[in-house]
Every structure is written in C-alpha cells, then in structure tokens.
Amino acid sequence: MHKRHYIQGRTSTLILGFAMLLLLAGCGKGQDNGIVEGKVNVVTSFYPIYEFAKAIGGEDANVINLLPTGVEPHDWTPRSQDILNTSKAQLFFYNGAGLEGWVPNFLKGLGNDSEVKTVEVSQGIELIYTDEDDGHGHGEAAEEEHDEDHGHEAGNEGHDHDATHIDPHTWVSPKSAKIMAENMKNSFIEADPEHQANYEARYNKLAEQLDALDVKFTSELEGMAKKEIVVSHQAFGYLCRDYGLTQHAIMGLSPDAEPRGQDLVKLSKLVKEEGIKYIFFEELVSDRLAKTLASEAGVETMVLNPVEGLTKDQEKAGDNYFTLMEKNLQNLKLALQ
C-alpha cells in the first residue's frame, strides 16, 4: 500500500515536473519572440516610427513595435518582455521631445551587457515650446535631456524654459517626419554599413513620398479662407506651424488632460465668432468633450488624426501614415472653406 502511494506520488511529481518544463520552454520561446538572427533588429516606441523604420530597413531589418494596436501612446508603459527584446536588439528608436516618459527607466532596465544603440529620432527638429501644462509632465523630461545632453534646439536659443513644456508631436508634419526618417537612415547605416546602399535607396523613396505630401499640404491649404482649427488634443502644433494654421485645443498636450470650464466657454465663443463649422477629435481617445462643445456651439465634429497609432479597423483596412495624413488634409480643407 505504501509502495503504491509512493509510485503514485512519484508519478505525480514527474508529471508536474514535465509540465513545468513545458511552461519554462514556452516562456523561453516567448522571450526570444521577435528577435531575428542575421538582420538588424530594431525596436520602435510607437507607430509612425515603426512605419518609417520598416520602410527604410526593408529586407535587411527586423522591426518590432512596442505599442499595441489601438493604444494611445502618451501614458502607455512597457512590459518586462519589451525590455528583454530591446536588450537583444541593435537599435532602439524613440521619438523623444518628452513623448515617452517611460524611456529613462526603460533604458536603465536593459542591463549593462546590452549593446543596443538608443536613438532619439526627433533630434534636429526645431521644437515647439508651450506654456500649456497638461498635468502629466509631458515635455519636462525632454527639456532636461536636451539642455544637459544636446543644448538648445535650433531656433530656441535664449528661450525661457521656466513653466514651459515641449510639444512632442513632431511627426504630424511631413517636414519634421522627413528629419526623423533621415535620423533613422543614418542609424541603420552606422549599425549595418554593409547594406548602406539599400538603406539610402529606401530612405530616398520614403523622402520623396514625404516631400510630395509636404507639397500637397502647402499648395492645398494656402488658399483656404479660414486658418483657425479647434481640436480636442493639442497635437497639431508642427503641422499648423508649417502650413500657416492656428490650433485651439480643448485639452492640452496629453489627450486625457482635463480642460477648465472657462476654457470651454472661451472656445465656444471663438467657434461662433470665427464661424468655425467643425471641431476635430481623434479616434484613440474619447470624443466626449469634443462632442459636448460641438453640441453647445451648434457645429459638427470630424476626425483629425495625430497618427499616434492605428485602430484595429485601420490596420485591417491597410491604412498607414500617408493614407491617414491624406484623410487629414481632406478634412482640413472641408473645415477651412
């Protein structure tokens, strides 16, 4: 009897041990998921950087995007799996300018043996400073980083940084997006000089697309009767600066910052005085406030996409940076007539 119990117990232990081995094997497989030997492995912080890195890297690179589909990037934080994958990669591309507040701690977690090169792809863009305080600290880390490591950006020498924040939404303008793409191209070449010609050729193709988009925005917006837009999220500063528009935001730099009642009253008055017919909202965050203000002011709502990420439906439909920016242009033209 004791022997039978011993055998049963021994069998149960062996089964449990085998199950644990399978589980550990599965965990090990998951940890390596995404890294490809023989290619330049690149980890990107969110969608537009991922798209540009894929376009430039082509068949020579394996690009892994951290941010899941349908997630808004401002307050997202990475998982341990993301840290592990990045520690094994050759390049880590992030926007910088205060967008990804999680980056400093993320980089500390990579370990001393990681050889990944970290690239802030917004370097070289003339950054926009604002006194808008969104309550989330966006842009504050960037000010410290730029002041300590890189000096002041072009066009901002002598700028009083007290009580100011950096607008991180650089990619929303094709002009700035091209600078970001060039930074990525240079990093690819530095990491993999053997395939320099391939990276140059693919970058040139992407740059031509961005130049064409830039020309289209310039030519089609310069003749518009109106120049003022009302948006739910203050994400269009670079686009407005480059194409002669002015944005009035219901919320701040962060899409979930809460506006004050007096701000809503002021915006409602502006909408009526300027004859604004549309208030823009975006798809990855709630449109509640935009619709409330639109209802009070007797106007309609329409999408203006900051291209921070794709929804699941957009991904399924094959949308990308260029299709979303084309839709933005069409919606801007409708609103500015």
Write up what this structure looks like.
The N and C termini lie far apart (91 Å). The chain is of the alpha/beta class and 337 residues long. The chain contains 12 helices and 10 strands. 49% of the residues lie in helices and 12% in strands. Helix 2 crosses helix 6, helix 2 crosses helix 7 and helix 6 packs antiparallel against helix 7. The N terminus is likely disordered. The chain has a 4-stranded parallel β-sheet, sandwiched between helices. The chain is globular, with a radius of gyration of 24 Å. Belongs to the bacterial solute-binding protein 9 family.
Which stretches of 5+ consecutive residues score pLDDT under 50? 1-32, 134-138, 141-163
User: Structural class of the helices, strands and pairings?
Assistant: alpha/beta
Strands, count? 10
> Radius of gyration in whole Å, from Cα?
24 Å
Average pLDDT, to the nearest integer? 82
> Treating each run of at least 4 consecutive H or I residues as one helix, how many helices?
12
Q: How is the biggest beta sheet arranged?
A: 4 strands, parallel
What portion of the residues fall into strands of 2 or more residues?
5-15%
Order of helices and strands: HEHEHEHEEHEHHEHEHEHEHH
Helix content percent band: 40-55%
Principal-axis shape equals: globular
Query: Strands of the largest sheet, in order across it?
Result: 2-1-3-4
Cα distance spanning the termini: 91 Å
Task: Summarize the helices and strands and which ones pair or pack.
Elements: H1 2-32, E1 40-44, H2 47-57, E2 61-65, H3 80-88, E3 91-94, H4 103-108, E4 117-120, E5 128-130, H5 140-150, E6 165-167, H6 174-191, H7 196-221, E7 228-231, H8 237-243, E8 246-249, H9 261-274, E9 278-281, H10 288-297, E10 300-303, H11 312-317, H12 321-336
Parallel strand pairs: 1-2, 1-3, 3-4, 7-8, 7-9, 9-10
Antiparallel strand pairs: 5-6
Helix pairs in contact: 2-6, 2-7, 6-7, 7-12, 9-10
